[in-house]
Design a protein that fits this description.
Layout (H helix, E strand, L loop, with lengths): L1 H27 L5 H4 L11 H10 L9 E7 L3 H11 L8 E7 L3 H10 L3 E4 L2 H6 L6 E5 L5 E6 L12
Parallel strand pairs: 1-2, 2-3
Antiparallel strand pairs: 1-4, 4-5
């Protein structure tokens, strides 16, 4: 009888510990929608004026395009490296102009960005702060007026990448 009570007590303690660990893990992991809803400029809103001015400087024809895709990148981001690799693949057909915005890019990273052939804006944090970028690689699609059509954290910049955003 005493042995059974101890076994049940031990099972209850282990159960409480497991629930506590699961709770802590759940607090660490953000919900899937957080990358879309919290990260970056608001869907349907307009890109900050400073970004549009920078776009005019590096890609003056972006207002002629149906839409432009902007990718926010950092050097230390594995997804960003994969995005750059995808841009280098000739089989990837893009119907939108792609502009890269790199934060705190080292000289080596700048060389890698130049090799993509995509217009690039080098930022020290002002643009990222204005756009509220918190996760990378953030890909944002805008229209001719700078209105955000779609966004998401993804390593792809093709047409299907933001279809479910």
């Amino acid at each position: 009888m005493v042995n059974e009570v101890l076994q049940w007590g031990l099972l209850i303690v282990v159960g409480i510990l497991v629930l506590g660990i699961l709770r802590q893990v759940a607090l660490i992991l953000p919900p899937e929608t957080r990358a879309i809803s919290v990260n970056g400029p608001k869907l349907g809103g307009t890109m900050p004026r400073g970004v549009l001015v920078e776009l005019d400087g590096v890609a003056p024809n972006w207002r002629v395009e149906e839409a432009t895709t902007i990718a926010f990148l950092t050097e230390s981001c594995a997804g960003c490296q994969r995005l750059l690799a995808n841009l280098a693949v000739p089989a990837v057909v893009l119907t939108h102009q792609v502009v890269l915005i790199a934060r705190a890019a080292s000289p080596q990273f700048r060389e890698a960005l130049v090799e993509t052939g995509a217009p690039t804006i080098y930022d020290e944090g002002e643009i990222w702060d204005a756009c509220e970028v918190t996760a990378t690689p953030l890909v944002v699609r805008i229209d001719r007026e700078g209105q955000i059509l779609a966004k998401g954290v993804t390593h792809r910049v093709d047409d299907d990448a933001l279809a479910n955003s």
